[in-house]
What we know:
Elements: E1 4-9, H1 13-23, E2 28-35, H2 40-48, E3 52-54, H3 59-67, H4 76-80, E4 85-88, H5 95-105, E5 108-111, H6 117-120, E6 123-124, H7 126-129, E7 138-141, H8 144-160, E8 167-175, E9 191-192, H9 200-204, E10 212-220, E11 226-233, H10 242-250, E12 255-258, H11 260-263, H12 268-277, E13 288-291, E14 296-298, E15 301-308, H13 315-325, H14 332-346
Parallel strand pairs: 1-2, 1-4, 2-3, 4-5, 5-7, 6-7, 8-10, 12-13
Antiparallel strand pairs: 8-11, 9-10, 11-15, 13-15, 14-15
Helix pairs in contact: 1-13, 13-14
Amino acid sequence: MAVIRVAINGYGTIGKRVADAVAAQDDMEIVGVTKTSPSFGCDLAVRKGYPLYCTFDDSAKISAFAAEGYSCTGGLSDLLSACDIIIDCSPGKVGADNLAKYEAAGVKSIFQGGEKHSLTGLSYTSSANHQQNLGADCTRVVSCNTTGLSRTLMPLHNHCSEIGGISVNCVMIRRAADPGDSSKGPINAIKPVLKVPSHHGPDVMTVQPDIRINSLAVAVPTTIMHVHAMTVELPEGHGLTQDSILQMWHDSPRIIIMNGAKTRITTTAEVMELARDIGRTWGDLHEIFVWEDGVSLNENTLYYFQAIHQESDVIPENVDAIRALMNTEVEWEISVAKTDAAIAKFNNI
């Protein structure tokens, strides 16, 4: 089987992580990453051995890299001619312009959750709709919050889908900004998202429309994680217990369950300290963290809390999405196992 040639357009918070996850796979290779201009991120790409391209085809902008001592292989068009698929990690709402370029070059593309579902008409999470994405020309990996919701809700949905399904209400307690972002807030406030429902719940329905879900969101002065406060209504006759739900999640990939009282991991700060302690690159946590002692089943109503590392939970999903679009792995569970084993090896875990 030929190795899939992968390009990354936008080598920032998500792009640099996706690049490393792709480079760790034995069926993929990074053929280049883009930066808009010479910057610190170029140093990281050079150290990693990733060919550096300019986001633009402007010769003056390309020459600016050389003037700062970086070897720039070319512009975006040159990169598109060298890849089979491109992962768009561009900042801002530039997806429509970029998609037109990718389509003109005949290159498959994957966008991130900052773009709207309408851009691609198809969205992706590994556990929800891998097969619907097989062979597609483009898709969108949903946001960090939607990915986190999908991870824990899909096992419940699969169990209950034939006896009435599940109905979900959730409150998204969102970090105000990423750790490296100094331009956002709030700094000393709690900021409710006054659009109800927030976009997170409806976004889940782009990957699994049979989940009935509504969401509220607030932003709080922290940078390290999101927390979801979940309420799930299960159908009559669901046959689940609190222990069987915990076991269901335990048996599902990319979910970590820990007892806060026993481990003394009771806050998001301690969750991220755990990620650093186990040696994850950048202290990332790709898994969704569920507090065991925060799970409660009261007849048909399930309550739980989960924590989402917004910089990294979507990273392995991008790798699985590559296999879906390139039609190299039909079963999502097999792709997930491959992806996670390679990333673990990369992290020396």
